[in-house]
């Protein structure tokens, strides 16, 4: 039963992201923003799906790569994207807090 839950969660998250990219035509002008957003969304999905099995060796590179991409977003796309970058970094910091709290139990 858990595998179906994982599949449904993943499909809903990826479907929502795909719909966002499809319906917002102006976003297509910013391919790096699309790539960063898709990477962060997939990482969030992987975090929640694999949280019970997630080890530190997998979690820290996930956070480092997403953090690096989020920092590079305003550098490559322009400083008007700093708010998305901050939003992604805040979400990643909450993932780190959640991971720490989960592993303490």
Q: What is the gist of this entry?
A:
With 105 residues, this protein is an all-alpha fold. 83% of the residues lie in helices and 0% in strands. Helix 1 (2-23) runs antiparallel to helix 2, helix 2 packs antiparallel against helix 3 (56-77) and helix 3 (56-77) packs antiparallel against helix 4.
Write the SSE topology.
Elements: H1 2-23, H2 31-50, H3 56-77, H4 82-104
Helix pairs in contact: 1-2, 2-3, 3-4
- What order do the SSEs take from the amino end to the carboxyl end, as H and E? HHHH
The tally of strands reads: 0
Number of helices: 4
Estimate the strand proportion.
under 5%
Low-confidence stretches: none
Largest sheet: none
> Whole-number radius of gyration?
15 Å
The dominant shape is flat
Q: Mean pLDDT across all residues, rounded?
A: 88
Describe this entry's structure for a reader:
- The chain is mainly α and 105 residues long.
- Helices cover 83% and strands 0% of the residues.
- It contains 4 helices and no strands.
- The radius of gyration is 15 Å and the shape is flat.
- The mean pLDDT is 88.
Highlighted features:
mainly alpha; 0% strand; 83% helix; 105 residues
């Amino acid at each position: 039963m858990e595998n179906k839950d994982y599949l449904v969660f993943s499909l809903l998250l990826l479907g929502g992201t795909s719909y966002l990219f499809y319906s917002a035509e102006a976003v297509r002008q910013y391919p790096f923003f699309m790539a960063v957003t898709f990477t962060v969304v997939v990482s969030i999905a992987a975090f929640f799906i694999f949280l019970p099995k997630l080890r530190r060796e997998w979690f820290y590179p996930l956070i480092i790569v997403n953090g690096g991409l989020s920092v590079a977003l305003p550098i490559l796309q322009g400083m008007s994207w700093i708010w998305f970058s901050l939003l992604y970094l805040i979400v990643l910091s909450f993932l780190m807090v959640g991971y720490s709290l989960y592993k303490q139990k």
